[in-house]
């Protein structure tokens, strides 16, 4: 790989990505570093981060508002897919990675850069997500990963930065590694590395502890239009506004926490804590509405697709051919997934208590055991005879008792 002249660096303002700026220049021979920080709805003022990059030696410091893009182009397809990695994690952090990769590739093209860079280490999933996504968007673009190569501890990285005039204000150190966007928070490291250790209250920010939640339940009605979340309690709104509202409502009732040991792509198990109130609630509501509007065979087949889809996203294959093919199948299934789901929130639980859809396949006249029953009970005998015929023949031939 040849030397890069101009590099666009994914920038968070933390120690590692800040140290990456002088490191790229002095160790990798990069002449110009352009940083890119993405506003993903983390509720953080990015202007100080932009200025910090310039002070660290960046020739240009870009800030991109990508919150709407994250919801529209990444969260909504994932909700349609009911995507839960290992049937639990709604991919709140993983979904942001292909978006950031796309922003890097777009910025590299606009700035005429010949490489992009990130601050991922060699132990996590994000390095794979960035590298593979960037390769899928522009296979000719070089990808640099200084933190994967420098082998420095956090203190050594700080000392390296101080050689070039960088300062890192002393503040109360958190033992946790936290990633935060509009879709949720992921928390790991520190005491959480022991899977037997219960998370303390200071781990959580989006969800209340059960003792702090309201004593009275709250009902919410979530509307969907062809699989996309479109209204809350009868009020039409953008999915982004809906996500923000549900984060507050569901979080207030203590819903949205996940504590799991997950299988990382790099081959190790990792204990992770997640908060994703809105995303978990939307997936649960969407899946329930599908039970009303999809045929049994489509529902059953889609479950296998959903599992594959979740693995693809988790493993960094958002821009892969298989992911695109699965999207086409999923979008076809969503044509009639329009309706409303009613959910009761109380003390950490979200109980679906009602659902309705104009194109519902459910028929009360067929399902009822009352006087209005229209099901032809006489047809059952012939159906059972035909359905059980292979089993009876097998039993006769094998002489089973």
From TrEMBL:
EC class: ligase
The keyword Amino-acid biosynthesis is assigned to this record: yes
Pathway the protein acts in: Amino-acid biosynthesis; L-arginine biosynthesis; L-arginine from L-ornithine and carbamoyl phosphate: step 2/3
Main location group: cytoplasm
Positions bound to L-aspartate: 121, 125-126
Gene Ontology molecular function: any one: ATP binding
Subcellular location: Cytoplasm
Nucleotide-binding is among the record's keywords: yes
Pfam families: Arginosuc_syn_C, Arginosuc_synth
Catalytic activity: L-citrulline + L-aspartate + ATP = 2-(N(omega)-L-arginino)succinate + AMP + diphosphate + H(+)
Binding site for L-citrulline: 89, 125, 129, 177, 186, 262, 274
Stretches assigned to the Arginosuccinate synthase-like N-terminal domain: 6-166
EC number: 6.3.4.5
Keyword terms of this UniProt record: Amino-acid biosynthesis, Arginine biosynthesis, ATP-binding, Cytoplasm, Ligase, Nucleotide-binding
UniProt cross-references to SUPFAM superfamilies, sorted A to Z: Adenine nucleotide alpha hydrolases-like, Argininosuccinate synthetase, C-terminal domain
Binding site for ATP: 10-18, 38, 119
Single GO biological process annotation from the record: L-arginine biosynthetic process
Domain Arginosuccinate synthase C-terminal: 176-394
Gene Ontology CC entries for this record: cytoplasm
UniProt xrefs under CDD domains: ASS (cd01999)
Positions in coiled-coil regions: none
Subunit structure: Homotetramer.
Protein family: Belongs to the argininosuccinate synthase family. Type 1 subfamily.
Name by which UniProt lists this protein: Argininosuccinate synthase
The encoding gene: argG
């Amino acid at each position: 790989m040849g030397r890069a002249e101009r590099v666009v660096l994914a920038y968070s303002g933390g120690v590692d990505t800040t140290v990456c700026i002088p490191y790229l220049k002095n160790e990798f021979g990069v002449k110009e570093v352009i940083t890119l920080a993405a506003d993903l709805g983390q509720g953080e003022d990015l202007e100080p981060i932009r200025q910090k990059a310039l002070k660290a030696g960046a020739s240009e410091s870009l800030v991109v508002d990508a919150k709407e893009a994250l919801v529209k182009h990444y969260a909504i397809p994932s909700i349609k897919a009911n995507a839960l990695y290992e049937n639990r994690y709604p991919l709140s952090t993983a979904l942001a990675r292909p978006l950031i990769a796309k922003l890097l590739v777009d910025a590299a093209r606009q700035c005429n850069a010949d490489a992009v860079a990130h601050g991922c280490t060699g132990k996590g999933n994000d390095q794979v997500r960035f590298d593979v996504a960037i390769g899928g968007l522009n296979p000719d673009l070089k990808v640099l990963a200084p933190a994967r190569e420098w082998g420095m501890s956090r203190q050594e990285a700080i000392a390296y930065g101080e050689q070039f005039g960088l300062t890192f204000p002393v503040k109360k150190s958190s033992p946790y590694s936290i990633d935060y966007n509009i879709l949720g928070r992921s928390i790991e490291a520190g005491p959480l590395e022991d899977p037997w250790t219960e998370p303390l209250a200071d781990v959580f920010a989006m969800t209340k502890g059960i003792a702090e939640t309201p004593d009275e339940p709250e009902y919410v009605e979530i509307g969907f239009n062809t699989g996309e979340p479109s209204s809350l309690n009868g009020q039409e709104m953008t999915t982004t506004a809906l996500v923000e509202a549900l984060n507050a409502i569901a979080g207030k009732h203590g819903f949205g926490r996940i504590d799991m040991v997950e299988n990382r792509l790099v081959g190790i198990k990792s204990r992770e804590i997640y908060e994703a109130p809105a995303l978990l609630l939307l997936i649960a509501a969407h899946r329930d509405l599908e039970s009303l509007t999809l045929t049994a065979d489509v529902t059953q087949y889609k479950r296998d697709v959903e599992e594959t889809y979740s693995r693809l996203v988790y493993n960094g294959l958002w821009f892969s051919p298989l992911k695109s093919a699965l999207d086409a199948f999923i979008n076809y299934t969503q044509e009639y997934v329009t309706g409303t789901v009613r959910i009761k929130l109380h003390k950490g639980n979200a109980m679906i208590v009602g659902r309705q859809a104009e194109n519902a396949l459910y028929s009360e006249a067929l399902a009822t055991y009352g006087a209005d029953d229209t099901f032809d009970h006489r047809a059952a005998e012939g159906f059972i005879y035909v359905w059980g015929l292979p089993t009876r023949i097998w039993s006769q031939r094998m002489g089973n008792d």
